[in-house]
Amino acid sequence: MVYRALVGGSPWFPDSIEGDRVVLRKHVPENVAAFQRWYSDPEVARLARYQDAPMRADEIDRFFQLRALGHESLTMAIHERETGRLIGTCAFSQVDGENGSGMFHITIGEKDRWGIGYGTEATQLMLDHAFGTLGLHRIALTVFEFNERAIRAYRNCGFVIEGRSRESIWRDGRWWDELGMSVLSSEWHERRASAPPQARSALG
Ligand SMILES: CC(C)(COP(=O)(O)OP(=O)(O)OC[C@H]1O[C@@H](n2cnc3c(N)ncnc32)[C@H](O)[C@@H]1OP(=O)(O)O)[C@@H](O)C(=O)NCCC(=O)NCCS
């Protein structure tokens, strides 16, 4: 049997994905200004980047053109539902339709929106799309072990730690591991089946 997820087909890149508190939309060229602010912030760089310094403006611009507007990744802007405010970005990269796998990335760039559930909801919406619509089999990510907020949000969405690259990052005067986490479609289906009806609709 040949396994093929719906990668590249019409449902692959939806115009929007609606959640209760966030809405994911396709990026538009004007979003580059927000990318410039987010990715030049040392606090964001500390949590998400191997290099200690933030990206330079030209690197951010290239990253935006390639990652947010390009079609190699499935990248969605995260908007606050109530206000429409653009608060972050999330993506699947390295999507492999034959093996049903992809890598997940997320940045809530607006720091006054950290820790109030938006990252968890955006991640859940992306997983619902990956498993419920595209029929992917496995979504993976990497995260630095000191990024406890991110790890917690990922765990809440069903990701489990599957490995660690030992002492692969030097930050704040010491070595830290980078964790590999993943979630499988069977686990996503189980969570949906065991969730109470109200939570099930929140799970997609
Ligand atoms: C990581 C990120 C996407 C998480 O999104 P978020 O909206 O801030 O997180 P949420 O509010 O949805 O969930 C955070 C969870 O961590 C907990 N938390 C919040 N602040 C925390 C902190 N400082 N330390 C540990 N846990 C924390 C929350 O209580 C919540 O868990 P709970 O729902 O079980 O109570 C977002 O913070 C972000 O983009 N950070 C900067 C870039 C980054 O780190 N990207 C990920 C790189 S792998």
How would you describe the overall organization of this protein?
This protein starts with 15 loop residues before the first strand and ends with a helix. The protein has a single domain (10-202), classed as Gcn5-related N-acetyltransferase (GNAT) (Aminopeptidase, 3-Layer(aba) Sandwich), CATH 3.40.630.30. It is globular and about 45 Å long. It contains seven helices and eight strands. The mean pLDDT is 93. The chain has helices at 32-39, 42-48, 57-69, 118-133, 148-156, 185-194, 197-202, and strands spanning 16-18, 22-26, 74-80, 86-96, 101-108, 138-144, 160-171, 174-184. With 204 residues, it is of the alpha+beta class. Strands 1-2-3-4-5-6-8-7 form an eight-stranded mixed beta sheet, sandwiched between helices. Coenzyme A is lined by residues 44, 47-48, 88, 106-108, 114-120, 143, 147-150, 152-153, 156.
Topology:
Elements: E1 16-18, E2 22-26, H1 32-39, H2 42-48, H3 57-69, E3 74-80, E4 86-96, E5 101-108, H4 118-133, E6 138-144, H5 148-156, E7 160-171, E8 174-184, H6 185-194, H7 197-202
Parallel strand pairs: 5-6
Antiparallel strand pairs: 1-2, 2-3, 3-4, 4-5, 6-8, 7-8
Bound molecules: coenzyme A (COA).
Low-confidence stretches: none
Number of helices: 7
Look at the structure and name the CATH superfamily: Gcn5-related N-acetyltransferase (GNAT)
Give helix % range.
25-40%
Based on the coordinates given, report the CATH architecture.
3-Layer(aba) Sandwich
Rg computed from alpha carbons, rounded to a whole number of angstroms: 17 Å
Total count of strands: 8
Output the CATH class name. Alpha Beta
User: In what range is the share of β-strand residues?
Assistant: 25-35%
Task: Estimate the global geometry from the Cα principal axes.
Answer: globular
